[in-house]
Amino acid sequence: MLTNRQGHPVYDNQNQRTVGKRGPATLENYQFLEKISHFDRERIPERVVHARGFTSFGYFESYGAWGDRPIGEFTRARLFAERGKRTDVAVRFSTVIGGRDSAETARDPRGFAVKFYTEDGNWDLVGNNLAVFFIRDAIKFPDVIHALKPDPITFRQDPNRIFDFMSQTPESMHMLVNLFSPRGIPADYRHMQGFGVNTYKWVNQAGDTVLVKYHWIPTAGVKSMTEADAAQIQATDLGHASKDLYEAIERGDFPEWELRVQMMEDHEHPELNWDPLDDTKVWPENEYPAQPVGRMVLNRNVDNNFAENEQISFGTGVLVDGLDFSDDKMLVGRTFSYSDTQRYRVGPNYLQLPVNQAKQATVHTNQRDGQMAYDQDQGGRNPHVNYEPSINGGLVEGEYPTHDEQGPEIRGRITRARIERPDDYEQAGQRYLLMEQWERDDLVRNLVENLSQCARPIQERMVWHFLLCEDDLGLRVGEGLGIAPADVAGLEPLQQQDLSEADRRRLGNLG
Ligand code: HEM
What are the boundaries of the region Disordered (predicted)? Predict the structure, then answer.
């Protein structure tokens, strides 16, 4: 029987209470006012980025090894420890820039966020489908997102704004070469890779640390779309990727990914001409092999999209013992941003919601109250004691698992500075050279199409950057825009940008 939230039966859900058949309505109309005022509050703020997404559930199964080495040599995280050990997961795939109901065919990175409900508490691996990012310092994140989001007046996404920002941000070149290639529109969520993008650490029993990068590889292979494919799908369906994932799981065709991990010793690696903490770089796989550590299967759809997809909350600070942060300047900023936005978006007690709870671990905190607190969480043997330390039976600290010191010792002066090895162009050029011919053609076509809508100085600066990435890329984009190398060879490097002698010579020769 239909009731209201107070448990009162609803006898008439069609007619409000009125004085006489034709009204007026009365103010003590509790049932009607409750119904409509709850409806008025049905929406919570959508995510400021990654608003459109879809969540599924399943499990992660560990191989107990990193390649052919026992994984315990590198991390003491218990979810990885034994071969065959399974951990429940929730995964939310998303687009980044559009709102909650926007098209899933957009040229846009895709989010790939995994929540592992481990026995040591939750671990979130919040990644994307592209291996690198636009920027390398979190302080620039609001700017890059503002440039990519719709214009504040016309409310249209505008290539002139996007490339205005990117043309002044050389570190974005590697990401742009990926994003405007076919990889920028994955065919659906089941056929795309995932990358942790930022550099993390693993910690073993002895407190030794290594730097790691995470990769998810879909068993079904990677598939992407051209602009033309995407336009055709978008004409009839704005949510093809969610639909594809939902239907595959409903028919028992469970999607699967292998988790692979790249590893490096934990130090600055002066031998490299890029920095291992720079998220605009990939680690070449021939030198740093991505070794399998487990697989993930998604086998259950949400029961309620709002409770399990809209309210699910991931964050890069959500790590378990044996896994740690690196000093990657993006990661630090992200780690603040996620829980901060979730306290606003979902509410201060967002971690009490079933989908966000650490289901497999025991939770006892001295956190109390706040909006919508419902979990008793009395903790301890004495519920009067919601502080620590106490001799009266409150909660006590756990025994520290092993070492409380780990990793290399770091010294430095407080400063604001760019990292020392930016090398913004080489990997972007290499990525272009690794592409098949049709992918290069598609990339150039997409760039020219978008840049054609930009002001001439922005076009020139972009051609200048692309020439520095790879001659052929710069020449072809320039040709599409009617800009010859000689037109841009005289441009001065941007403020704060050091151009190597070799790069200057290359530009000069082309000019
Ligand atoms: C979502 C901030 C970079 C992947 C979000 C959200 C914020 C945010 C505020 C919304 C979270 C929510 O409402 O629950 C930032 C900041 C970044 C950054 C400040 C840079 C400093 C990145 C990078 C990646 C990434 C590099 C990829 C590795 C994601 C994903 C989501 C997300 C997958 C969606 C999570 C979900 O499905 O709920 N980010 N982000 N972000 N971000 Fe980032």
Answer: 1-23
